[in-house]
Please model this.
Amino acid sequence: MKTADACIYPYPAGDTSLRRLADELELRGFTGAIAVGIPSGCTIGNVRFLSGAEIAANSVKSCRDALRNAPKTDIVMVHAGDAALNRAILGNISLHILRGIYHTDKRSFDHVSARMAADRGVAVDIDLSRIITESGPRRQRALERYREIGRLSRKYGFMLTISSGGRSLTGLRSTRAFSLLGEVAGLDTEQVCEALASPAALLSPHQSVEVIR
Amino acid sequence: MKPLPPTQRPNWRYIAAEMVPQWCPAQARDMHYAILGCEASLFGDSAAASMRTSVISCDRGVVIVRCIRGTEPDVETVLATVTDVGGAPVALHSFATSGTIHGLKKKIVLCSLPSDEGNCKIGENTYRILRISGQKVDLVQQGIKQTTALYLDTDDLEDF
Model:
């Protein structure tokens, strides 16, 4: 899974079936994707799908409850909140991707959160649907937040993922569009390539060497 | 009137983009306004003016866009941000760039037009079945205000 879209919503959350999405993703240069709402990971054609659970909570307790009630999935994505919540989530919850950073304020993801994300192998998602579908102040705010996240990622080395957030066939974009829109969001080409490969890396995180006797 | 010599003409580049869904009845004029709107929204009026983008043709699911040489990456970025044309949801995926329309047309492989295969009923809604190339099937519901669609596969259609 060298290039993966970090969040898509197949039918019934969206209007496109998983098989059709697999066709389209392959055509647009992807080899994998994280699909929210599918029971388990699968491979269709040359596209590997990982199952994802998306959790939006306003406290660590509710986040933990939601995680307990959610079906078991390959990837857990939690929506970001204010600075205290983000630090608490990064410190206490076992998650893979922190999403929805675009609607948080500027100080919600700072150098402390960045260092925690880097230490725990948590990726921060760059949702391109905010750049594609929004306009005006909302798009400007998303771009501003993404540029800040890109800068922090370069400095502290936490992983990034890029997602189209597509609920439909018309919501998907090609890998070329990902890199072009990533550039607009202040990411360099290397960061975009790494971000596209991150979903596979999240499944097999780097761990310290163990001596087996 | 004497025509401009080639050295004094602007250096155009032509970009071909695939329209998804292919059956979207978008007119070239609507497409032009949609692209200009996205351009001004993303890069501002000044940058949009310097790109001098215009739609040459919009036919059979392929859009040909003209722009000034050197602005192709920006125009491709703009094409990626187009989400609706004339009220219909559309995505544009650029796939080829050339210095001449003749050169560009060599790179375009036109797909067969979607064939209408009657109607089907899912729940309370009636959909028109459009078979796209391969196993792709689009179910289209023509509403008064907007068109909704389900993008499926032949196997999915059997499951329904």
Observations:
- Chain A has eight helices and eight strands.
- The domain at 52-162+169-202 of chain A is CATH 3.20.20.140 (TIM Barrel).
- The first strand of chain A starts at residue 4 and ends at 8.
- Chain A touches chain B at residues 11, 15-17, 19-20, 23-24, 28, 131-133, 135-136, 139, 168-174, 176-177, 180-181, 183-184 (CB under 8 Å).
